[in-house]
Amino acid sequence: MEALVFAYGFFMQNRSNHGALRGSRFLGRGKVKGLGLWAVTPRLVGAVREPEGELYGEVYAVDRLTLDFLDRVQGNGKLFRRELFPVEMENGEELQAWVYLWLHRRDTCKTTGEGST
């Protein structure tokens, strides 16, 4: 079984956590409307709901083992929650992909300005 995952922040190509997606199939770049990228701690970024936001990232087809690993790394249900979102790809195609959303308070976070508008 393959699942589509929207990678942003440190999971994108040439970033520190991209190795978690090793062996996964890169499908292209795209954006998710209604999300923004925020610095949720000094060393961690997270996607948060932002009505006017656009979060840019990459879509990968991942196997079940990789999805389970990402869930553990992202603290699925504790730090982040995985939700399906429509992703508008650069080629105009729309895909449904899993996005990890930050679960905790946002009032102490700051927008990064990176990967979001």
TrEMBL record:
Q: Which SUPFAM superfamilies match?
A: Gamma-glutamyl cyclotransferase-like
Residues covered by the Gamma-glutamylcyclotransferase AIG2-like domain: 5-105
Q: Which domain of life is it from?
A: Bacteria
Q: Report the Pfam families cross-referenced here.
A: GGACT
Protein name per UniProt: AIG2 family protein
